[in-house]
């Protein structure tokens, strides 16, 4: 898990894929990742379609690419954690989001990534997978 966290911190823009109400894939750039209580978390706004999509269909995919040509593919269940302390922990790592979000604003949401499969890939090395 720490290797995935380090990769996403080093490559801070990744792409998050969800499924909309019609069953169509939706992909958008994302940038939050934090470790809290032994789990990785992402953050979004409750008013965004991505929130509704993760609540309806929690299985998500993440893809990030490194400057070295490597890439990381992650599949996971995005599980809403509605605790104030979880929101505070994620936002503490992203002070640049604090003008837009507050842990107690009724809009900020955080999702724990559970049942994770992460595969590190490269054109020069064999891929390897970790799960938790």
- Low-confidence runs: none
Helix content: 10-25%
Structural class estimated from helices and strands: alpha+beta
Query: What is Rg?
Result: 14 Å
Number of helices: 3
Helix and strand run:
HEEEEHEEHEE
Averaged pLDDT: 97
Tally the beta strands. 8
Strand content: 35-45%
Distance between the termini: 7 Å
Summarize this entry quickly.
This protein is α+β, with helices and mostly antiparallel strands.
Notes on the structure:
This protein is globular. The protein has 132 residues and is an alpha+beta fold. The protein is built from 3 helices and 8 strands; from the N terminus they run H-E-E-E-E-H-E-E-H-E-E. A hairpin with a 5-residue loop joins strand 1 (14-19) and strand 2 (25-30). Strands 1, 2, 3, 4, 5, 6, 7 and 8 form an 8-stranded antiparallel sheet that branches. 20% of the residues lie in helices and 44% in strands.
Helices and strands, with pairings:
Blueprint: H1 2-10, E1 14-19, E2 25-30, E3 34-36, E4 39-45, H2 49-56, E5 59-65, E6 71-81, H3 84-92, E7 108-121, E8 128-131
Antiparallel strand pairs: 1-2, 1-5, 3-4, 4-7, 5-6, 6-7, 7-8
Notable traits:
132 residues, 20% helix, alpha+beta
């Amino acid at each position: 898990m720490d290797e995935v966290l380090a990769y996403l911190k080093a490559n801070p823009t990744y792409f998050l894929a969800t499924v909309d109400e019609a069953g169509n894939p939706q992909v958008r750039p994302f940038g939050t990742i934090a470790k809290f209580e032994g789990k990785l978390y992402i953050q979004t706004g409750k008013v965004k379609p991505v929130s509704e999509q993760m609540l309806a269909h929690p299985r998500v995919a993440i893809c990030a690419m490194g400057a070295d040509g490597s890439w990381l593919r992650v599949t996971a269940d995005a599980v809403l954690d509605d605790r104030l302390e979880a929101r505070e922990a994620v936002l503490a790592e992203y002070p640049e989001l604090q003008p837009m979000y507050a842990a107690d604003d009724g809009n900020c949401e955080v999702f724990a990534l559970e049942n994770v499969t992460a595969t590190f890939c490269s054109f020069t090395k064999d891929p390897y997978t970790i799960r938790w």
